[in-house]
Specification:
Radius of gyration of chain B: 14 Å
Order of helices and strands of chain A: EEEEEEEEE
Shape of chain B: globular
Oligomer: heterodimer
Structural class of chain A: mainly beta
Helix content of chain A: under 10%
Distance between the termini of chain B: 37 Å
Number of helices of chain B: 0
Largest sheet of chain A: 5 strands, mixed
Strand order of the largest sheet of chain A: 1-9-8-3-4
Largest sheet of chain B: 7 strands, mixed
Largest interface: A-B, 24 and 25 residues
Shape of chain A: globular
Helix content of chain B: under 10%
Strand content of chain A: over 45%
Distance between the termini of chain A: 37 Å
Number of helices of chain A: 0
């Protein structure tokens, strides 16, 4: 599975959009980009995933660059409850495994 | 949506005893489940892949005789930490997939916190 790189931490003001970047420059054509988040002492929660097209659901939007080497997770209106560690993961159906990196700790501030 | 349940959510045991953690997919069948371990302030580390009806596949460096995995049905996988020691104290998390064309959204359990005294 391709390695992903994320900034270790970010801050965001409550009510503003949180934009979390992820680099996956070695991603292969059949690897999906997945985003999960983990709130303290809980299991990871699925947010969104995509292959090459931008995706949106009730939680977030995922913007994938045309060359697929990077992506951005957008939480449109961050709340205090969005404070968590956000993991960007490249997933291959060949292995079926989700390999977690270090993630980005997002702190939403009042 | 898909729900994965883990039990117990926390357990304290004495050094040398064995502890069993259950992972159940409540509303779907999972031929494959995954077990992770997470130490404080660290990311999740994949320990093994649990396959229904066959032997688990362990990641490099994970002792298969130490961490026994059984996946006897399509909705239940168990992880047994044998002869537990304080260094086995950790947060153990399982996940299971619903599966779909090329993508596989894994649902995670709430985790089981093991403390070995």
């Amino acid at each position: 599975d391709a390695k992903t790189t994320q900034p270790p931490s970010m801050d965001c003001a409550e009510g503003r959009a949180a934009n979390l970047p992820c680099n996956h420059s070695t991603i292969s054509g059949n690897e999906y980009v997945y985003w999960y988040r983990q709130i303290h002492s809980q299991g990871p929660q699925y947010i969104i995933h995509g292959l090459k097209n931008n995706e949106t659901n009730e939680m977030a939007s995922l913007i994938i660059t045309e060359d697929r080497k990077s992506s951005t997770l957008i939480l449109p209106h961050a709340t205090l409850r969005d404070t968590a560690v956000y993991y960007c993961i490249s997933f291959s159906s060949n292995t079926g495994k989700l390999i977690f990196g270090q993630g980005t700790t997002l702190q939403v501030k009042p | 949506g898909a729900v994965v349940s883990q039990h117990p959510s926390w357990v304290i045991c004495k050094s040398g005893t064995s502890v069993k953690i259950e992972c159940r997919s409540l509303d779907f069948q999972a031929t494959t489940m995954f077990w992770y371990r997470q130490f404080p302030k660290q990311s999740l580390m994949l320990m093994a892949t649990s396959n229904e009806g066959s032997k688990a596949t362990y990641e490099q460096g994970v002792e298969k005789d130490k961490f026994l995995i059984n996946h006897a049905s399509l909705t239940l996988s168990t992880l047994t930490v044998t002869s537990a020691h304080p260094e086995d104290s950790s947060f153990y998390i399982c996940s299971a997939g619903t599966g779909s064309s090329g993508a596989n959204v894994l649902t995670f359990g709430a985790g089981s916190r093991l403390t070995v005294l």
